[in-house]
Amino acid sequence: MIIKAPAFKFGDDINTDYIISGKYKFKSNDMNEMARHAMEELDPDYYARVSPEGGVLVAGTNFGCGSSREQAPLVLIHSNTKAVLAQTFARIFYRNAINTGLPVVTCDTAQIAEGDVVEVDLEGGVVRNLTTSVAIPFAPLPDVMAKLLADGGLAAHIRKHGKFALES
Questions:
Q1: What are the sequence ranges of the domains in the chain?
Q2: CA distance 159 to 63
């Protein structure tokens, strides 16, 4: 799977309340409506900027720290965020992202700036910054996680196969 989109750059320690504020958690189960509030604490225009064409959210260390709410990766998906690149992820956010079908890549993000067009090759293990011609390698996802992402997440995988079908 190859994802190509502009980068939307954030810093370190982006917690799940920054991704989707807790004040929206109980107001709606409509992810499309909640997605309008994605990242609004840090960038009130994020949804308006990312949703038309899609984008890749790029961050520093400890992305997704905080609570374990599954709404965080879901609102990113519904905001048209195609992938998240970060130097490190909070463990629970990382697994929630894979389980909901949001590609997450651990890599060096220092050479990606706001607005750079990036191409993420999930199988090849490389992020190409098409704006600066820099290639950033990363360890490809384990086969199990790649299969879940290819199927659209854990629930979609079960619907597709009628069971866990993760053998190689």
A1: 2-140
A2: 29
Residue 159: is it exposed, middle or buried by C-beta count within 10 angstroms (0-12/13-18/19+)?
A: exposed
Dump pLDDT digits (tens) for 31-84: 888 899 999 999 999 999 998 899 999 999 999 998 777 889 999 999 999 999
Query: pLDDT tens digit string along 121-133?
Result: 999 999 999 999 9
| Closest of 49, 119, 108 to residue 79, by C-alpha | 49
Spatial contact of 13 and 61, defined as CB atoms under 8 Å apart? yes
pTM: 0.92
Beta partners for residue 127, in sequence order: 120, 136
Angle between helices 154-161 and 91-100 (to 10 degrees): 40
- What's the CATH number of domain 2-140, 3.20.19.10, 3.30.70.920, 2.40.128.120, 2.102.10.10? 3.20.19.10
**Each residue of 8-35: b (16+ CB within 10 Å) or e?**
bbbeeebbbbbbbeeebeeeeeebeebb
